[in-house]
């Protein structure tokens, strides 16, 4: 049996390695929720025709990695650790990031689509980022604009909820009640859906569930402006205009132009990272190292992976490891912060 690691948890897969390196699963068992039928593989009303599935089938079983690609997944297999991790891929069955519909999710009892009819500012942050100090300011923005139809939804990209909770609790108002929904993305589900590669990142979702402003590096205070060049007052001014003046947000053509859709390399990096996280939590740090290295090689710019996993590897995300990473990216000409360009 192989352990299956996905964003929504772990499971088991009956499979065996083939001499050529492929991982083969039985043809008569479900795979990734898909069932083999005479006319193809089906999951609910979606079906992969038999002639297309034939590319992944062999007399000895179905090639797990090839099948995953056909149904919109990326698979990373570690035969030695008897584990396989999946991340969303491309194609008609894969997870797609588009302007027309913001990806829905449910996390910590919060469902994005339940906020339909309101404008939503999704604020991605982490305890390993200085942006943790911005949480009270985001609370203030929510309190100022909530009655006008805005909800601030904060998403912590911490791999341990215990790391994020003190900062969430510390940002509560005087009454102590949570002023807005705040969730912790321990499995990287929401970060994957929105292709968030660093924090702080903000995404706007309008009343109809469409992306009104794509991934934008924003700060709610000027605490680190000398380092990141981000103007907190400008971000608040833009937010107020969007909410109070019923502005449509960023023009649809600019949203489409600047929406960062994950590349194949970024998707595979997330699968390697997912496998590494599971191995680290299982106490198998040495086995996790090749997957951490693979993720860094595939997506060197993805600080949500590289810096975000430092606490799990015993590194200080504010220490020498982080500054070495900053130097590496700067020397390679890779920007750490990616604010939305000003409209010309």
TrEMBL record:
Superkingdom of the source species: Bacteria
All residue ranges annotated as the Thioredoxin domain in the record: 96-248
GO MF, one example: oxidoreductase activity
Pfam families, per the entry: AhpC-TSA (PF00578)
SUPFAM superfamilies reported for this sequence: Thioredoxin-like
Segments passing through the bilayer: none
InterPro entries attached to this UniProt entry: AhpC/TSA, Thioredoxin-like_sf, Thioredoxin_domain, Thioredoxin_ResA/DsbE_sf
Xref: CDD domains: TlpA_like_family (cd02966)
UniProt-listed PANTHER family: THIOL:DISULFIDE INTERCHANGE PROTEIN DSBE (PTHR42852), THIOREDOXIN-LIKE PROTEIN HI_1115 (PTHR42852:SF17)
The protein's name in its UniProt record: Peroxiredoxin
